[in-house]
Amino acid sequence: MKMDVQTLAAKKAGSIDLPDDIFGLEPRKDLLHRMVTWQLAKRRAGTRRTKTRGEINRTGAKWGRQKGLGRARHGSRKSGIFVGGAKAHGPKVRSHAIGMPKKMRALALKHALSAKVKDGALVVLESTEVKEPKTKAVKESLNRLGLANALIIDGREVNESFARAARNIPNIDVLPVQGINVYDILRRHHLVLTKAAVEALQERFQ
Fold first, then answer.
1. pLDDT tens, 128-178?
2. pTM of the prediction?
3. Is residue 158 domain-shared with residue 62, that is, in the same domain?
4. What is the CATH number of the domain that holds 110?
5. Which of 166, 164, 194 is nearest to 180 (CA)?
6. Do both 56 and 39 map to the same domain?
7. Which of the listed residues 90, 116, 145 is the one where a domain comes to its end?
8. Which residues are 194's β-sheet partners?
9. Nearest Cα to 23, choosing from 196, 193, 153?
10. What DSSP character marks residue 179?
11. Which of its termini does the chain have fewer beta carbons within 10 Å around, N or C?
């Protein structure tokens, strides 16, 4: 499919062919949901932990008479019903990661790209080169393009001046093409790819 290429000045700079096998698929919600679940599960630290009765440093001796006090017949202060006692069935250190085949992850990325094309939320930029890292100038350029909430994917190396200027703008993320992922694509309203990013993605999926 053909798509117009724009500059940061919101002017047309030719067109580019987007391969249908990457940008022209019918998005599958189930696949995108599974991919986002995989990403969010993988990033969880899994370091929450509580002590068991065997790790509590409290007396295990019977602390009251069996009869005559009018209380329950407790035998240990380590019980979870006491303040400072153990936690029954509490969380343990573990990995939250789930399995997902590599080919399925690659397919999910294609479906995320296709979803942005179908929604009319994909913008192709000629480049992100700016003369100086001025946040005000970059914000004005993005406003001209109608980008208030966007993920911007550059080539293998992000333009340093553009990245420094854009990092202070709310709801704007800038990543190199190696960092492109389904979760970040879907959480932003628009996806912006430079020509270098499109070429890198074509090479990646060959």
1. 999 888 999 999 999 999 999 999 999 999 999 999 999 999 999 999 999
2. 0.85
3. no
4. 3.40.1370.10
5. 194
6. no
7. 90
8. 125
9. 193
10. G
11. C
